[in-house]
UniProtKB/TrEMBL annotation:
GO molecular function: endonuclease activity
Top-level taxon of the source organism: Bacteria
Organism name: Streptomyces mirabilis
Keywords on record: Endonuclease, Hydrolase, Nuclease
Stretches for region Disordered: 220-241
Protein name stated in the entry: HNH endonuclease family protein
Residue ranges annotated for the GmrSD restriction endonucleases C-terminal domain, each copy included: 80-215
PROSITE patterns recorded: PROKAR_LIPOPROTEIN
Amino acid sequence: MVRLRGGAAAAALVLFVVGAGISGCKKDTTGSAGPQGTAAGGAALTAVDSLTVKGRAPKTGYSRARFGTAWADTDSNKCDTRDDILKRDLKNVKFTGGTCKVVSGVLDPDPYSGKEVTYKRGRSLVDIDHLVALSDAWQKGAKYWDAGKRIALANDPLNLLSVDASTNRSKGDGDTATWLPPNKGYRCTYVAAQVAVKKKYGLWVTDGEKAAMKKVLSECPGQKLPSGGNPTQAPKRFTAN
C-alpha cells in the first residue's frame, strides 16, 4: 500500500497490511491508502468462518438517515469524516481555510478501477464508498442496533475508501456475492476489509456471500485481516432518525 497522505488528522489511522496472493489477487500495488489495519487480526480467509450466516432481512425501514447525518465528526478532530478520508487517500492534497476542507488532490490510482482520478471539490469524480454498504448492513443486523452503533459504522475509517465515482455507482448496495472491483489486483484487499468490518460490528453474511468471500480469499490465503478504525459506538451527542 502507499503511505498515508494528508496531514495530522490522518495520523491516527494505522497502515493497512496487504498480503501476497495469486491469480488476480496478488499483492496490491495499485490501490490508494485505504481502510487501515494491522496484521494482528490474522488471516482474512480464516476470519470468514467466524461470521454468522443468515438470510438477508427485508430492507423495510432503511434510510440513510438511520445512520445519522452524513460524515459526522465522530472522532472529534474538528474535521468531517469525508475530509478525513480524502486526506488519508489522496495525493497532492490542497485545502481551503485551514487543514480540514480538501479542495483538490489526486487518487492515484483509484483502487477500484486502477486509473488515476483527479479530485476537485464539487465535481463529483471521487466518492467515499462504504465498503460494507449501509443498506447491506441494515439487512444483515444493523436494523436492530441502537443509533450510536449505526452512526459509528457509517463513519468508521475501517469501512471507508476514496474511489472513482463512476465505478462505485455500479456497486450499489452489493455484497461480495454480487459485486467486486473491476481491478482484480485489489479484490483480496477489498474482501478482507469487508470481512473485517462485518466481524468488528457483528454483521452477518448470507450463504452466497460467505462462499464468494472464501472464493476470493482462497486465491490469497496470506491476506491479513485489517483492524483498527473508530470505536463501535459514536459519542452520545450524535443522533439518528
